[in-house]
Amino acid sequence: MAPPEAKTGSSGLIVRVISAFVLAPVVLATVYAGSPFFEALVGAAALILAYEWNRLCGGRMGWLIAGAFYIGLPCWALLLIRADPAHGRETLFWLLAVVWASDTGAYAFGRLIGGPKLAPVISPNKTWAGLAGGISMAAVIGVGSAFILDHTAVLALAGWSALTGAVSQAGDIVESWVKRHFGVKDTGNLIPGHGGLLDRVDGLLVAALGVAAIFAISGI
Known about the structure:
By secondary structure, the chain is mostly helical.
């Protein structure tokens, strides 16, 4: 018989996967449809994130200002990426797939393998195995995306995907540090298995900024 910890980990993973399957089609449909549906989705998400952030920091002015940048800039980045007429939709699909794969891979590998902790003081549940799993799954998405999009630079896209997955994991650690600072486990209970919306998109917020920066620098 599996130990209680294993049962809890398995059930938690199942809940997370079910939540993703329920929410993902809505998000993907709005990304595909574009304006004005995508702007409406991002706007609604920003309001929820702002509410959760205010609840998290207790309305402290300095933290509210930080939250305006922490939430506002990534939301603007997502809109910027999707607005690109040539590559916006495909890039956003790729970004979401990489972040979701990284998040799921990190959770699954961390639960199934365990091992040394990645940041025990900030987030005791995160492990080096989870980080490796998240980055590996992101790289797999990159390879798959290269074949789907008929992209010749397969290794390059796999590398960028792995890097984006790592950045996404860093975003998760940043949010974990903020939650630990305020002594809370989750920013809310909106999404079963994930907590609040901020708990679900913490990696996406940081990764979106990175991809938008590449857009701006390269001029694509």
